[in-house]
Amino acid sequence: MVFCRGCAKEISTLAKACPQCGAPQASEQAFTAPNAGAAQGNPYIEVLKKYAVFSGRASRREYWMFILINVAIGIGFMVIDALLGTKGILNNIYSLAVFLPGLGAAIRRMHDTDRSGWWILLPIVNIVFLAQDSTPGVNRFGPNPKGIN
Which of 29, 32, 21 shows the shortest CA–CA distance to 134? Predict the structure, then answer.
């Protein structure tokens, strides 16, 4: 699913024109052109913008950079907690705040490998799937976020 260029309603990726407003849409090449779907800006911010979005696809870079930055911020909060003697309260609040974005990113990452988000529940297998490369081209969850056919 993509958003209409005219009315911003969600429409099929295969639609030539929006069924609601009739605005012409980009061809499929626009969705699969090299680097068309590459993340713009900071992957951490991109994941936070999609706070509770569990549909679509997330690239390896988007997911793992979010995890890396998340761990660094968590360590920072642990240091601050230790200095202030707050027994981990700040780190726990931060972890709770980023739980849904992290879960959404993990599910979108599973979708990028053409698997159901339920695979996240398997402890060892999910790490292998999270590290795999994207399914080339469009899969059942949408266009490739890297923009590669």
Answer: 32
pTM of the model: 0.70
Helix/strand/coil for 24: strand
Phi, psi of 66 (to 5 degrees): -60, -45
Lowest mean pLDDT among 12-21, 34-43, 80-89: 34-43
Whole-angstrom distance, CA of residue 128 vs CA of residue 124 = 7
CB atoms within 10 A of CB 25: 20
Residue 85 contacts by C-beta under 8 Å, 6 or more apart in sequence? none
CA dist 14 and 99 (Å) reads 33
Residue with the two structure tokens 């974005």: 101
Q: What is the token pair recorded at 132?
A: 């795999």
Residue 93 has pLDDT above 90, yes or no: yes
- In the predicted structure, residue 39 carries a pLDDT above the cut 50: no
140 token code pair: 């059942």
**Residues 118, 124: contact at Cβ < 8 Å?**
no
Mean pLDDT of the chain: 84
